[in-house]
UniProtKB/TrEMBL annotation, chain A:
The gene is gatA. Residues 32-456 form the Amidase domain. InterPro entries: Amidase (IPR000120), Amidase_CS (IPR020556), Amidase_dom (IPR023631), AS_sf (IPR036928). The keyword Ligase applies. It comes from the Bacteria. It comes from Aestuariibaculum marinum. The keyword Ligase applies. Coiled coil: none annotated. This is Asp-tRNA(Asn)/Glu-tRNA(Gln) amidotransferase subunit GatA. Gene3D superfamilies: Amidase signature (AS) domain. It is an enzyme of class 6 (ligase). Pfam families: Amidase. Its EC number is 6.3.5.7. GO terms for molecular function: glutaminyl-tRNA synthase (glutamine-hydrolyzing) activity.
Automatic annotation (TrEMBL), chain B:
This is Uncharacterized protein. The lineage of its organism: Bacteria, Pseudomonadati, Bacteroidota, Flavobacteriia, Flavobacteriales. It comes from Aestuariibaculum marinum.
Amino acid sequence: MESQIHKIHQQLANKEMSCVALVTEKLNALKANTHNTVNSTLDDLALDLATKVDAKIANGESIGLLEGIPFGIKDVYMLQGTTTTASSDLLKNYKSAYTATAIQKLLDAGAIPVVKENCDSFGHGSSSENTIFGSVKNAINPNLVGGGSSGGSAVNVAKDYTVFSIGGDTGGSVRQPAGYNHVYGLKPTYGRISRYGLMAYASSTDCVGPIAKSVEDIRIVLNVMSGKDIKDQTSYASAEINAENIKDTSEIKSVGYFKNFIDSDAIDPKIKSDFLSTIEKIKVKGIEVKELDFFQSDILVSTYYTLAMAETASNLSRLDGSNYGNRIEDKNLKESYAITRSENFSEETKRRIVGGNQVLSQGFSDEIYLKSLALRDAISENFEDDFKDVDIILSPVTPSTPPEIGNSLKDPHAMYLSDAYTVGFSLGQLPTLTVPQGTETGLQITAAKTNDELVLKFANFLKDTI
Amino acid sequence: MSKIMTVDILSSIKGAQPSEAVNKLFDVIKNAQATNNNSFNDNRNNCVSLDDLREDEVIESSSVEKQIIIENFPKEKKGYLVVSKIIEE
């Protein structure tokens, strides 16, 4: 699909429509939608900003590319003065005191936030059913899940309720819902975009990720949000990705894929055959394709969840109702903490906190937590070796098509295993993009660390190839 | 003195118990072969260089930020945050 940002920018600049009319249309569509994508709409802020854009155009001033473009924000990002709930009871009335760096950069570029979007509570889930705002329904078939945890964001983009949305990806939370709803979703290299103001789930893999309908829109939004930020010392400076550069795909000579992902008993036969037929089309274009060895899916999933649970147990320990949140008073401070957390966290969030504290406990940490860290290093080393041999790694996004609403919550272990193809790239901190092509739930394109540009290049190549 | 703390105490969650779904994940790790048992011996950690630390200085919050922090207090009295009395055990 063509760039929605360029198209709308032209319409605004040419006065074919006003920014207020555009924002009003998006707000109305969001409010009327039955997919449960909305936690709150930002009417006053959005219309005030839109009025200013219209005034600027009326005065004959030029506007920036993102100026007046309506976008959505997963409800785990701080935006000063707005409610930021993380789709949880604990924070259902919490108001952001400050604005996340990534969101501030979009505001500075003139983009207009219109909605805080539904998601799994604190990012804990792969279906956007673990939320107090109702299960997010898939954009293509509303009986199926929207995916998660950034389900509301992916559905909003797919349904054109937002031009782009900002999700968060810790183990696949942008890439999987993008695949389930047939849109693009990027997990950039860890640290390319500042995490300041993103509610921490697992800090060592948390990434800010754009969701949009074209490679070009992903590129535009990625460029605006990237950069070193003193408030997140894991962030790094990166060069802007040029539109012309990513059209030249001649440097891509070799592509690899993990044989064990495709040979797995768990993969849907149609996803497998579609993936292999994509590989054949790539070979026809003269690109060398190599089969690669990788860790078994159960090791990847278990390593990821062990570390993510340990980190979330630590990160969420601050949520005790003392300074903010839905405090429930009891006979003393410790009891108040316990009842506040017991009543306000969802079952899935509690399961992850408890799992995290288990592996961080004396007697368990060596056997499980430290071993998981060692496995993570081995996984990263495996990737480093792979990228000496191939330019790009291509994989399916998920082993199966989206489940029906209600099924994931019944079997948490099956839900964890459904992340088999996304979590490895999170552990490796690699740039990975979901494209809505190749299989029913799309394809993942991965390149070596910091080479986000190559990922977008290959996406352009695939657009013309399959 | 050593005191065994159960996961419900560690997690501040009443009645919390380890779950079967999560224990299955941990069993995989216990049985996995890790080739490298020292995870701090390479350059894949996200350490910040000593030359790249931010200045150790206090940055005053804006008045709007301070006002919102106060609005978020679960219990407030005359602009102060009210908490339960802490009881030493």
